[in-house]
User: Fold this.
Amino acid sequence: MSKRYLIPAATHRVEDSIKRSRFISTAAHTPDGESAKAFIAEIKEEFPDATHNCWAFAAGPPGDTAQVGMSDDGEPHGTAGKPMLNTLLHGEVGEVSVVVTRYFGGTKLGTGGLVRAYSSMVNLVLESLPTKEKVDTVTVVATIPYQAVTLFKRMLPEFEVEVDEEMFTDEAAFELTMPEEHLSNFTERLSEMTDGRGRVVSK
Assistant:
């Protein structure tokens, strides 16, 4: 069964001041390593005069480490990228990148202070991040006899089906998009409902 999880619904930004340093945390939906790197480059371009643009990304489901990356961007080794990535991996959102931009304010935070600052900036942006559910979908064409159309349309909400197109010839055909996890039960139900005359074909 395909897994559902939360992903960012939009790019989101928060700011905070820690011991006179200005921290700007920007998060975005990045489904793979390529899009993560493109997003990081975009933020570095937006804040070219920042003291540091530290970043971390986790491009898979929440907690998945197959596609991850991080950078301290000039901060002492292990004080920014790693705590940022750890915070992302313990969160409930997948396919996400965060860049924490820092403008140094004159007061050094020390290594422990930096770890706390970068972790808290990731938490801060995740707390208010707009999210949506990621669901793996499939597109199929269902063909059914006309007398089954009313019953067929009634069962669609149960399987979270969206009708993309309707085609009427000697039979009724519908192009449908639905969560992949519902496909086998949907096909079975359709067959029962039409005494085996209904067909579901993948696009």
About this structure: The CA atoms of residues 59 and 152 lie 38 Å apart.
